[in-house]
Amino acid sequence: xxxxxxxxxxxxxxxxxxxxxxxxxxxxxxxxxxxxxxxxxxxxxxxxxxxxxxxxxxxxxxxxxxxxxxxxxxxxxxxxxxxxxxxxxxxxxxxxxxxxxxxxxxxxxxxxxxxxxxxxxxxxxxxxxxxxxxxxxxxxxxxxxxxxxxxxxxxxxxxxxxxxxxxxxxxxxxxxxxxxxxxxxxxxxxxxxxxxxxxxxxxxxxxxxxxxxxxxxxxxxxxxxxxxxxxxxxxxxxxxxxxxxxxxxxxxxxxxxxxxxxxxxxxxxxxxxxxxxxxxxxxxxxxxxxxxxxxxxxxxxxxxxxxxxxxxxxxxxxxxxxxxxxxxxxxxxxxxxxxxxxxxxxxxxxxxxxxxxxxxxxxxxxxxxxxxxxxxxxxxxxxxxxxxxxxxxxxxxxxxxxxxxxxxxxxxxxxxxxxxxxxxxxxxxxxxxxxxxxxxxxxxxxxxxxxxxxxxxxxxxxxxxxxxxxxxxxxxxxxxxxxxxxxxxxxxxxxxxxxxxxxxxxxxxxxxxxxxxxxxxxxxxxxxxxxxxxxxxxxxxxxxxxxxxxxxxxxxxxxxxxxxxxxxxxxxxxxxxxxxxxxxxxxxxxxxxxxxx
Length: 597
Prior knowledge:
The structure is a single chain. The chain has 597 residues and is α+β, with helices and mostly antiparallel strands. It is 24% helix and 33% strand. The strands form 4 sheets. An 8-stranded antiparallel beta barrel has the order 14-16-17-18-19-21-22-23. Strand 17 (476-492) and strand 18 form a beta hairpin. Helix 1 (80-97) packs across helix 6, helix 4 packs across helix 6 and helix 8 (237-247) crosses helix 9 (249-258).
């Protein structure tokens, strides 16, 4: 069945295919002929015959019988021709694939709408129980040679009806080719990734000129970093579109014979064997590169979400972990220096690419050199097919030689003999200001200007240890890697959703001096990584924050105000910034000893 996500109030399925024994079907002169097709018909409703025609499949001709029940209102146009053309086009598509079949089809057009006590349409199990409790019909029809398609013209726009019928037609293909796997299934089971995902793929194959499945893409983009592909449903058409173009449409139908009938563990095992690890890695890379295509070769407008950011400003070891069959991604960021990189504890496959270069995916270099004031980034994509998922440990060590060359040698010469205001010496904890608060304030102004809010909630999470700045009396400072995030959700009186998801990390070290109320900072090594996801009604967009954003300090001059326990910094101008960024610190301890490295 196909969910209509464009209108939540009627987002239940527009059709549902079930196999029924042909012997029980003749025509509407038989009392209660189609009554068992929909539980709410009460077992005795009459119907009207409206069309009978034949279609050709790769395994021969099949009969299609269309009827309407008595719940259709007089002012409703029964979409006979649209439904018939969609079934014929679906059959033609199946012939073009060259394999597969359907049973004879019974198409029932019904005027039923969601009940007055219909459940939350986002709860597929409750919707299934309320709308179409087909448990008995499904069980009774598995040995039959007829497949039922219910059409609800009151629940779907006529211009979308043909795509929906193509989706349901493919469910009848699934019943014909994989009856055991389809036995007794329910919405929301882990087999939705191939049952609903491949049906959605077929609908796009039958109607390539449409963007019929675009509304499912945000769900796929949101799910893939942290969840295995078998947690997908209709949105898994993204994978099947790639699979069908890579191996041919018939390969999708071949999988129907291999798909298991079982829970999540069985689905994971089967999915891991659909293709080998190298081709799973290829799919991951194509997805992250946004190189996925519709069946007709138009580009799929996927929007991969950013993954974790791992930042090296000093020697460090980082552990990367991803769920089994999740499309894991991460950004590796190296600051100034000559780095030696070692990897170990690998489980699964992975590659990296430099987003600043035109080359493709490759192994992570064992040696890299980053100039002063620069940074080196790699996008990593990894996938694990076993129960352990994806695992990788990266150890990066910076050569001692050349540390001074990372940007501040000239600074130290220039500032030799400069003042170092003793008030600044100590360990300081950021209490307000910095990147996250500044950006959240700017976004809040945009969001609040978008309407009158029925609710407005914001939450910030931060690693307290990472927000500490240590200033030494010898003119050096450092701060550890910190990660901070802010989530904002706002709803208008109409129910429109606005919000933002900000996640940023930063770290670094360098030299400082003071003169005439200005704190002059030279960052010996610094880097920051951040993303902001903006939610504007039904649209989502993700932007990468510029490099200079940081919770703490980067190379610049700051106006400062220091007292015994409080430090306030302000930078008057930032490129492209609508307002100055400010930092407020409270002293939480002394500075390091003079010989602290």
